[in-house]
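Input sequence (256 aa), recorded before submission:
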Amino acid sequence: EGILHMGACSSTTEQNMHFLMENNTRYTLRLATWCLARNARLVYASSAATYGDGSLGFSDDHQLLSRLRPLNGYGFSKHLFDLWAQQRGWLDKIAGLKYFNVFGPNEYHKDDMRSVVHKAFEQIRDTGKVRLFKSYHPDYKDGWQLRDFIYVKDAVTMTLYVFDNPKVNGIFNIGTGQARSFYDLAAATFKAMNKKVNIELIDMPPAIRDRYQYFTQADMTKLRDVGCQHQCLSLEESVADYVSGYLSREQPHLSS
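Predicted structure, token format:
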């Protein structure tokens, strides 16, 4: 009936482009070819990493696709399939979703690709503090870099809306439409754990300083226009649900 293709290597520091092309780009191409040949539904994961430094904004308008310049191999591998789909005229038959910063239950297996909420919870539990990157951009204070953080429950609701409406095709953003700071995220985690805020600022690794996104915020106009009116939980509500309902109850040794 259809395929929801979310699988990928989402590491923004992965340097093996052959692996990224095979795992993220060509595999999606094979799935798309299979679905189109059988008139099966395909909804696949693209990424907000395709927007690069954000200088062109975060609009999911197809006319802007060819102008985007991702900052890392992961973003490029996702962007390349979006371009292939556009050039082949597939975007009126399949749907690609540009997920922003998704967080939520069952992240143990993702290792360093886990969300900041998950990492913050473990840092607070083990050390009583959270480590955040210093800023290397004059417009952003240390720890106040901005992201569109979206809870996985909200992302799932939006994803299933697209999947269940076969006439909704093309590229769509999946986010809250509201940028929040890493400091806000850490503070929400401390509050959910009934702990006092304690932030330690650390140097950003030199390897990512020139390719770091300081601001992301999904333009949600297009998804709203096709009928998805889902209202996302606030950052504080989402983090509280994640921490109290999942992280504080989970047993890491069972994660495998």
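Checked by second reader. Residues 17-38 form the longest helix (22 residues).
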